[in-house]
Amino acid sequence: MDTRLLVEDFSAWYGQTQAVKNVTLPVYASQVTAIIGPSGCGKSTFIRCLNRLHEVIPGTRTRGRVLLDGQNIYDDKVDPAEIRRRVGMVFQKPNPFPTMSIFDNVAAGLRVHGLPPGTTAEEVVEKSLKMVGLWDEVADRLQDSGVSLSGGQQQRLCIARALAVEPEVLLMDEPCSALDPVSTLKIEELIKGLKEKYTIVIVTHNMHQAARVADYTAFFLNGQLIEYGVTSDIFTNPRDQRTEDYITGRFG
Amino acid sequence: MIAGRDQRRKFSNKLMLVLAAAATVLALLPLGSILLYVATKGLLALNWDFFTQLPKPVGEPGGGLANAIVGTLILVGLASVMGIPLGIMTGIYLAEFGRGRLAWLVRFTCDVMTGIPSIIVGIVVYGTIVVAMKRFSAIAGGVALAIIMLPLVTRTTEEMLKLVPNSLREASLALGASQWRTTYSIVLRSAMGGIITGSLLAVARVAGETAPLLFTALSSRYWHTGLDQRIASLPVYIYTYATTPYEEMHRLAWGAALVLVAMVLVTSIAARLAGRRAGGGR
Amino acid sequence: MQMPSPKSRRWGDSLFRGLTFLAALGMIGLVMVIAVQLIRGSQLAFTHFGLGFVTGSRWDPVHGAFGSLPLVYGTIVSSLIALLIAVPLSLGIAIYLAELAPHWVRTPVSFLVELLAAIPSVVYGLWGVFVLVPLVRTALEPFLQRTLGWLPFFQGTYYGFGMLAAGIILAIMIIPTISAVSREVLLAVPNSQREAMLALGATRWETIKMAVLPYGRSGILGAVILGLGRAIGETMAVTMVIGNRPQISPSVFELAQTIASIIANEFSEAFDELHLSALVMAGLVLFVVTLLLNILARLLVWRVARAPEGVTRE
After folding, report:
1. What residue spans define the domains of chain B?
2. C52-305 maps to which CATH number?
3. Does some domain include residue A74?
């Protein structure tokens, strides 16, 4: 199986606090990889290092390498903006741009990167909205504000916005934590459908969600990677006692 | 996704970030220039006479602005005596009792008052106090400055009182203290640093006000003789001397500007320190 | 210490509450006194000139002509010049301080910008007369005439004093207001908005342009209007450098006059009742305009403090 992202001996800090400690982990192409662990275990920080978003917070630093298709994204010559185009991200709370219409929200990335040759903005927006199953719901009101949608729709709009710039990897930082069960289900279905085209890394505090959507699962504790493997193995046959404690709910 | 586009994006990114920093530097240039001129030209004008002598008539060299320094202190003192207690009272009302429409209206009035041009205050005080007394006076000037101080003191008092945790109030009330005693001894005392900061900032602000004094306190070439008489002040002297053609008066105007700016800055900095020491300051 | 009896305590409470209540009412009363006083004082001019006061283009106290159009013109144009200079600079400062500057730079630079607001207006005027005006006369006006002299705005004698100098000095004076309020507005923009744009591969500037500034646009507009309000009412510095001649000329090199500056100039020397009343009426116009601008600005800035609908703030 192809390795899309290879994290090598990676650490990350906020000021003096080390949030990620010497993590090494391969992320396989066209698979869903879930990162689980108790709050404060560094899983969100870790995922934010995969598109170099951690460094936009003042006082932070990192050490180690992250190879995207063999190229170290932390290399001095690499432009973080270009990495962020190739590695898209969806956040905990839906964050559409409130002053933009639904259409403009999806097209926001295109406005900075330009259109792929031979396409129009209309085509790309329609394709992206169809991929997230939102097209039928919003086709007749594309000019309405992005924040006029429900929470679940907003989150799918944000996914469409991320997909419109054609990333290779999609990072999802607890994308359902602010949503109701029905919207959560829709997003989970969506994730399963998207993995053919995209490599997906999802952070979740919900173990069941990881079990439902992920092919691979990594368990983090106190900034360290404790265990990583095929999801079913992790949940049915953990090798580490701490992993077992966590998934059986005897933990924190 | 085309190389040229990325180049252009990176360039405009750099350019705009540099422009933002340049705007900051550019805006601070006048500040540097003003402080430099006031300091150098002002220092040349300052001597013993400046602080002890009365202004000389046009054409005679020498003289000082002692009466204007004293006058400014008197005017600011008068304004503080009137403006600070009233402002604190209003601030207490807003923070402790102020709910509903009236409080909203008072708060709004306060915000709006800070935007009223100070020369308007001058006209109004002229129309009421000066016309009634039939003369320009220190009192009228003090009232005009107090009106300008009032909303500044009110808003800082309110904000500082709101920072006092409610648990402190409840603890005091639970001990059987009356509300005014609670407010007075517990709430006010713990917010005192902030209130002093706010009041000093208001003092610094009105010390340099000129427009409202032009037709209230006017000016005077003599020592202050009574609160019902016209009175000299540094800002008005700077204005009148700067607009004369005489070198000697320009020199004194710079001296006055240095003294005034020093007074204002020292008060402002003292205000900040008071706020910081009380812990409530930002 | 003897405990006060319940009765006297209740009495003390209501007295205290009543006093603060009176003080608060006094504040509202004060604004009403200001309004009434201005209206009463301008009655004579109003019965004399009616609306002609605003449309009349000649202000000549010696001949009893009081048309305030040149003052209104001077006020508007000098304020517009100020905005033209101050808005881009202030936005640059706000962006620099809220988005870009390293943390150790932010506090001292913010303090310096605030210091600009602490300097008395009359000191700006003094500096204007002896530093800015000569600079405008010997450098800026000749330069503008050489490069843009084909425009009607940049023609005529180099006085130094005049509309241009007034606009520049006003710009310097309103920069602290606009930049401080805009900075607060930018700091109120949730980080999730920045990260959303950054995560799409946008550069920092693209993030500011497409996510941060649009989110704060009504607050920034409020900041600009607040600055405009200050520029319109600013008196001393303008009076000292604008040249004090009530006239309407397309050239910014020309001497001019604003509402505030004519009041400062003529009020204490106006012995004629009508002249005095005309000045009070000019003051009334100024009062109403700045009042409306301030109300508008406050409402706009308040709107940003509350986030736009549907967006959760963290």
Report:
1. 3-45, 50-277
2. 1.10.3720.10
3. yes
For residue C154, the 8-state DSSP code is G
**In the numeric block, which tokens belong to residue A247?**
């998934």
Closest CA to B103 of C21, C303, C13: C21
Query: Which of B225, B240, B215, B202 lies closest to B144, judged by CA?
Result: B215
- List, for residues A104-139, the tens digit of each pLDDT value: 999 999 999 999 888 999 999 999 999 999 999 999
Which residues fall within 8 angstroms of residue B143, CB to CB, at 6 or more apart?
A: B78, B79, B82, B125, B129, B216
Q: DSSP assignment, residue A73?
A: T
Q: Report the C-alpha gap between A174 and A189 in whole angstroms.
A: 15
- Per residue, the 3-state secondary structure of chain B, as one string, reads CCHHHHHHHHHHHHHHHHHHHHHHHHHHHHHHHHHHHHHHHHHHHCCHHHHHCCCCCCCCCCCCCHHHHHHHHHHHHHHHHHHHHHHHHHHHHHHHHCCHHHHHHHHHHHHHHCCCCHHHHHHHHHHHHHHHHCCCCHHHHHHHHHHHHHHHHHHHHHHHHHHCCHHHHHHHHHCCCCHHHHHHHHHHHHCHHHHHHHHHHHHHHHHCCCHHHCCCCCCCCCCCCCCCCCCCCHHHHHHHHHCCCCHHHHHHHHHHHHHHHHHHHHHHHHHHHHHHHCCCCC
Report the residue of A73, A90, A97 to disrupt the C interface, i.e. the one with the largest count of C CBs within 10 Å. A97
Mean pLDDT in order along chain C per 10 residues (314 residues): 56 80 91 95 92 89 90 96 97 95 90 90 97 96 93 91 97 95 93 95 95 94 94 96 94 95 91 92 95 89 59 36
Which pair of structure tokens corresponds to residue C55? 């449309």
- Residue A184's region, left for phi above 0, alpha for psi from -120 to 50, else beta, is alpha
**B50-277 classified as CATH 1.10.3720.10:** yes
How high does pLDDT run on average in chain B? 88
Per-domain boundaries in chain C: 52-305
Helices (H) and strands (E) in chain A, counts: 10, 10
Within 8 A by CB and 6+ apart from C271, the residues are: none
Residue B66 has which token pair? 């002692």
Residue A109 has which token pair? Answer: 């990335």
The sheet that has A3-14: what strands, in order across it?
A17-28, A3-14, A60-68, A71-72
Which residues in chain B are contacts of C96 at CB distance < 8 A?
20-21, 23-24
Both tokens assigned to C271:
């012995």
Structural domain boundaries enclosing A27: 3-100+168-247
For residues C221 and C234, is the Cβ–Cβ distance under 8 A? no
Please enumerate residues of A whose Cβ is less than 8 A from a Cβ of C. 51, 53, 56, 58-59, 81-86, 88-89, 91, 93, 95-100, 108-109, 111-113, 145, 147-149, 154, 158, 161-162, 165, 178
Check which CATH number belongs to the domain holding A18 and give it. Answer: 3.40.50.300
Q: Helix crossing, A151-163 with A181-194: angle to 10°?
A: 20
